[in-house]
Design brief:
Layout (H helix, E strand, L loop, with lengths): L1 H16 L11 E7 L9 H13 L4 E8 L6 H10 L4 E5 L12 H4 L4 H7 L1 H10 L3 E9 L3 E5 L12 E4 L4 H6 L3 E4 L5 H6 L5 E5 L13 E4 L6 E7 H6 L2 H17 L5 H16 L3 E4 L2 H22 L1 H11 L4
Parallel strand pairs: 1-2, 1-3, 6-7, 6-8, 9-11
Antiparallel strand pairs: 3-10, 4-10, 5-8, 5-9
Helix pairs in contact: 2-10, 12-13
């Protein structure tokens, strides 16, 4: 009888102090999600697929409600800024659209290593600290569209872009300018119109994530490609910290699965790229392949201009990131 009363007393004290109490089960949390691209477009669908995967894995734990995509909900260049301030909780975006938040962001597209290696060598850990200072948590690279290419409506004979007026995003502006092009920025929806009416003679874009309608106004693709057409999921850091370990784990593991599946050396990726280029050829598109010294000049210009821009914006962090993200030290 004494032992029974003692057990009840201990149990009562534990409840009163919170010790030994049953763990509190977190209620399902719904995050507000947004895409930097028009909903349903080839560049937005990978993030929409990631959201579906999160919602499937996170039933009863964490869900993502898609609010919409840019430009319908605002400029893609302000979406990550708004997310950092709390308007959205999670955003799917190319780093080209959040370089105005994180000057060092282009390192993500310059990487010469698979992301799995960047997670081992400290590259992404270093980047995570820079994100944190902006109230952002880097979740994962959920899509790699492969290298960017220059797409044209008239041929070129070498790496010089003098005389060409090109549509650009921040991804390759410095590169194209370094080879003599004049440039003009526009959003995704304006690419077709600008090519059709002759406002520009070309634009940069990865082969995957390409708008099929552009085949009507595009005649040439310059090889080799340059940089990496990567898309990233980023989360408001305060919101991230408010999530339970179980909720964070759903997001992390789902993001990592997408990251592994989108590695550019995977059989699935290579098969998709081969199929895409075959389709382009069927539409009459031709490849302009730079070789020898021309190829070397093209690729060196891309690397030099890209990293020079990052290091100019962020001398300390830019140099450190170059040692972590590239093989050439």
């Amino acid at each position: 009888m004494y032992l029974k009363r003692l057990a009840l007393a201990v149990a009562g004290a534990a409840v009163a102090t919170g010790m030994g109490a049953a763990p509190v089960v977190s209620a399902e949390v719904t995050l507000r999600g947004a895409s930097c691209f028009p909903i349903g477009s080839p560049t937005s669908k990978p993030f929409e697929d990631l959201v579906k995967a999160i919602n499937k894995a996170g039933k009863g734990v964490v869900q993502v409600k898609m609010i919409g995509g840019a430009p319908a909900i605002g400029s893609p260049f302000t979406l990550t800024q708004k997310m950092a301030k709390g308007t959205y909780d999670i955003v799917g975006c190319t780093e080209a659209y959040f370089g105005n938040v994180l000057p060092e962001a282009p390192a993500l597209r310059f990487s010469q290593y698979p992301y799995a290696e960047l997670r081992k060598n400290g590259g992404l850990a270093y980047m995570q600290k820079l994100f944190a200072a902006k109230n952002i948590h880097f979740l994962a690279r959920y899509q790699d569209f492969g290298p960017f290419h220059l797409w044209l409506n008239k041929p070129i004979k070498g790496p010089s872009l003098t005389g060409l007026h090109l549509r650009v995003s921040p991804v390759y502006t410095a590169f194209f300018r370094s080879l003599g092009a004049t440039v003009q920025r526009s959003n995704y929806a304006q690419v077709y119109t600008y090519m059709e009416n002759g406002t520009v003679q070309g634009f940069g874009w990865p082969a995957l994530g390409w708008n099929p309608a552009w085949a009507k106004v595009t005649k040439f693709r310059v090889e080799p490609g340059f940089y990496n057409g990567t898309l990233h999921a980023v989360v408001n850091l305060r919101k991230w910290k408010s999530l339970s370990p179980a909720q964070q784990d759903v997001l992390t593991q789902t993001g990592l699965r997408a990251e592994r599946a989108s590695e550019a050396d995977s059989k699935e990726f290579l098969a998709r790229l081969k199929k895409q280029k075959a389709w382009m050829a069927s539409k009459g598109m031709k490849a302009i392949t730079l070789t020898g010294a021309d190829r070397e000049k093209w690729l060196n210009a891309a690397t030099t201009a890209g990293w020079a821009e990052v290091i100019k914006r962020s001398p300390k962090h830019g140099r450190k990131l170059k040692t972590l993200f590239t093989r050439a030290k």
